[in-house]
Amino acid sequence: MLLSTQTSSAIKLGIVILSLTITAFYLFSGSSDLAHRNYKVIYQTAIKGKKGLFVESLLADENEIDGPFNNSTLIELCKTRDWTPGLIFKCEAPEGGIGNVRNVFLNCVRYAIEAGATGFIVPEILLRTTTSPEGIPVPFTHYFDLPYFTTTLQSTCPQIHLISHQNDLYNLPSTATPVPLIPTSITTSLLGGFILAAPGNWSASFHSFLNITHPVPPSEAKPILVSLAAPLLQFPLTYDDPHLVAQFGRILRFREDVRRIAATTLYALNTKYNLGLQPGRDIPRGKFYGAHLRTGVDASAARWTPYAVQERNYISHAMKSKLPLIYLTPTTAADVEAFTNTAANSSISVETKDTLLASISPLESTSIYTARKGFEEEWNLLQQLSWDQQLLVDFEVLLRSSIFGGMWESSFSWNVAMRRHVIVSGAKGWTSIAERGQVADELPSKGSLRRSLKGSVADGIEGGLIARQEVESETGQPAAAEPEPSSDPEPEPETPSEPQDEPAPEPEPEPEPEPEPESPTDPISIPPFSPENPATLSSTEIDLESRLEAAKSAAGPPAKVQTGEAREGEASFSDALSVVFGPVGEGARVRGSLWP
């Protein structure tokens, strides 16, 4: 028998009331987790969806790995400087990967503040392509978020007026011929020939230089334009307040689309492996390992760390860290396949931004990716980015890895590790880096030397020398890539007149091992780092171009030759969150002058 309309309506109403009662009980009962949740979040989840909420939360300034940007010390710095009306600074367009470009731009701003420049032209980037091997200038927005940079700098240093382009000075004839300046050329007080030894004196040296080249001081009516040669790794981190060092790099932020793709990539990783990642500050513990795998024809030709050594370092370190999931930043698809297969033998899963946002078509003979459902928009955005811009996505994801592993030849790796070191530094803001390195006993590997070196924090610039002394004292041999200090003095005993009269000159080399105990093991006996004693920098760090990774666009300049030997399990730097694999003691200049 069919129910009457009134009876049917009553039943439906009863079901609705019962559902509402059960829902209310669930929401407001003390045992429910939702009772303790932010109901605004629940509402946003319903409106935006889980992915949208995750991405938006991750992009919030307060959810950066080191918390919200705190500009207090930068504001104080700008208040203490003497500002010169009409003095305009321009940064010559640097070439290279994001690691180099970022450091150059930050140094340009830091020099402008120190000099008291009231004008600053938004810098450009020199990009090499197959059609323009000499390089073409591309805008600041190729890598960075210009509206954010403009707002951030002008709110912290309102004394500096940002100028969009040099062409905007067309009505000021006095700026038609810029004054070229290599910032380190106006002082003889340099560490290792590169880093300012006395940054506090640089401003006076600069204004003396400017008075000579332009006796008439600049003014708003007749400004002077100073063009800085790209200043890579020149400003020492030991000069500024530790809080400023930790925060200064935050005036630069990657472009919005890159950050959104990176946040979506993390969401895809989170949902695929049920990691339980929550958007928020700090580094998620025990979730996934981040590896920067840098190979390619140019890297091989430059004798950078071979693929096999990188592979074993990262997989061994992930196993040691008990992380069965690796997010990989590779150079080629072949690297991904080889690395994934090797990692699988150790029950480790490997993912990249490509594998997370798309899937490989099974019917194709080559790797043809198709966007995964729900990630079509982000995949299409990713494909519109150039190769070097896509690396920015990896940079953002690697920042949030539980443990990060990189390689010493790459400024990309150093940038990730240094930014994460801010977390390790904690409330201090920034703790100077002079890590001696961790070797085989800490990082399991095959065929590496079984040495155990314990590191501690010391001055970031002197650390390389101290580390090298410790290596020599424990091994009886100079550290890798440092043959010069020990080989030059030794030929002298080989030509004495006395051994010629005796038939047994061979025993005489026996005293040669005696210098082993003479090598100082106490840091107090190590001479301080100074222009007269520049040994902190290894032979591979002397050349500005070869010390750091070159531009990595598809047709960019090749990687530069490195002479240091990277052995399995050996690290140039490590802290609680990151390891940069390479010869122990290398990277002193980077540790002392690369803004985090």
Description of the molecule:
With 596 residues, the chain is an alpha/beta fold. It has a domain at 72-251: 3-Layer(aba) Sandwich (Rossmann fold). Helix content is 37%, strand content 11%. The chain is built from 20 helices and 17 strands. The protein has helices at 5-28, 39-59, 72-79, 98-115, 146-156, 202-213, 242-248, 256-273, 297-301, 307-320, 333-344, 353-357, 376-383, 387-399, 411-425, 463-475, 484-487, 515-518, 544-547, 588-593, and strands at residues 84-91, 117-121, 125-127, 136-138, 161-163, 179-181, 190-191, 195-196, 224-228, 289-292, 325-329, 349-351, 358-360, 369-371, 403-407, 571-574, 578-581. A 6-stranded mixed beta sheet has the order 12-11-10-15-17-16, with helices on both faces. The chain has a 5-stranded parallel beta sheet with strand order 5-2-1-9-6, with helices on one face. The longest helix has 24 residues, at 5-28. It is globular and about 100 Å long.
Q: What is the strand content?
A: 5-15%
Main beta sheet, described? 6 strands, mixed
DSSP helix fraction: 25-40%
Total count of strands: 17
CATH architecture of the domain at 72-251: 3-Layer(aba) Sandwich
Structural class: alpha/beta
The CATH topology name of the domain at 72-251 reads Rossmann fold
The CATH class of the domain at 72-251: Alpha Beta
Unreliable parts: 30-37, 434-558
Average pLDDT for all residues = 77
How many angstroms separate the termini?
77 Å
Instruction: Record the strand order, biggest sheet.
Output: 12-11-10-15-17-16
Shape: globular
Report the radius of gyration as a whole number of Å: 28 Å
Figure out the total of helices: 20
